[in-house]
Amino acid sequence: MTWSPILLDVIRAVLIFAAVMTLVPFLVLAERRISAWIQNRVGPNRVGPMGTLQPLADVIKLVFKEEIVPARADRVLYSLGPLLSFAPAAIAFAAIPVGRGLQVVDMSVGVLFVITATSLAVYGISFGGWASNNKFSLLGGLRSSAQIISYEIAMGLALISVIMTTGSVSLSQISEGQTSFLCWNIFRQPIAFVIFFTAAFAENNRLPFDLPECESELVGGYHTEYSGMKFGMYFLAEYVAMIVMSAMVVTLFLGAWSPGFALPEGLLGTVISVGVFSFKLFAVLFFYIWVRWTLPRFRYDQLMHLGWKSLVPLAMANIVVTGIVVTIWDAVQ
Amino acid sequence: MDAFVFYISGVLSVVAAALVVTRKNPVHGTIYLVLFFLLVSLDYLILRAPFLAIIQVLVYAGAILVLFLFVIMLLNLSEEELRESTSTTRKGFAGILSAGLFGLLSWGILRSPTVRNMGDLAAPVTSPTLAKAGETEAIGQALFTTHALAFEFSSILILVAILGAIYLTKKRKQTSSAPSQTSLTGLESQEEAGQKHAPADGARLEKRLA
Question: What is the full DSSP assignment across chain B?
Answer without folding.
Answer: -HHHHHHHHHHHHHHHHHHHHH-SSHHHHHHHHHHHHHHHHHHHHHTT-HHHHHHIIIIIIIIIHHHHHHHHHHH---HHHHH-PPPHHHHHHHHHHHHHHHHHHHHHHHH-HHHHHH-STTPPP--HHHHHHTSHHHHHHHHHTTTHHHHHHHHHHHHHHHHHHHHHHHHHHHHHS-HHHHHSTTHHHHHHHTTS-HHHHHHHHHHHH-
